[in-house]
């Protein structure tokens, strides 16, 4: 599945290459929402217990002058931060290796028609994992007034063997130091999410953001011996500021 997503994104990028080249040449600024909040979510992927943790907001990256949600196809950068997993903090993970914080960098292909949008992302990890991950999903936007915007969405999360092996696998050496047998999960769709998201503009540049997500682990990820609960709900709230970088 990740390979299919990668091929789809690469093919679309090649088809759109002339227009993209011209578009990137015309870009004189980058705009994004960046901020910080709190998230109440599973302690680690697969945990049955939730805990409060920082929510690093990095959303709505726009190349060029922001003019609302652009209709049709567009390609934008895609970034994700994943926190560290210290096995010493959880009795269930005793004997497993720690996982450092990870950053992911890649591309997002969007298609917007009216209030509906569909997307696919692909990113390469560095730091805590060196795999390839991404999502495919769809969202519906509802804007009751000029300050409040709501989204409902459905998303399938994807990862290759390196990604799922890092977060759901048990190596031979870990099997010797933990209570788990060795486990080598394959890549593919590892989670499905349903979400409701809101943004309220306090000022033209500052907004309060919130998100409620119901996630469920799938496939080899869900079958991992470290997983206590396949259901993975979360709630997040924070404040973001629109940043503008001109060239």
From TrEMBL:
A Gene Ontology CC term for this entry?
cell outer membrane
Q: Any keyword Membrane?
A: yes
Query: Per its record, how is this protein called by name?
Result: MipA/OmpV family protein
Q: Which family does it belong to?
A: Belongs to the MipA/OmpV family.
Task: Give the subcellular location.
Answer: Cell outer membrane
Query: Which InterPro entries does the entry mention?
Result: MipA
Q: Does the keyword Metal-binding apply?
A: no
**Keyword line:** Cell outer membrane, Membrane, Signal
Pfam families per UniProt = MipA
The protein's superkingdom reads: Bacteria
Entry's transmembrane regions: none
The region annotated as signal peptide is 1-21
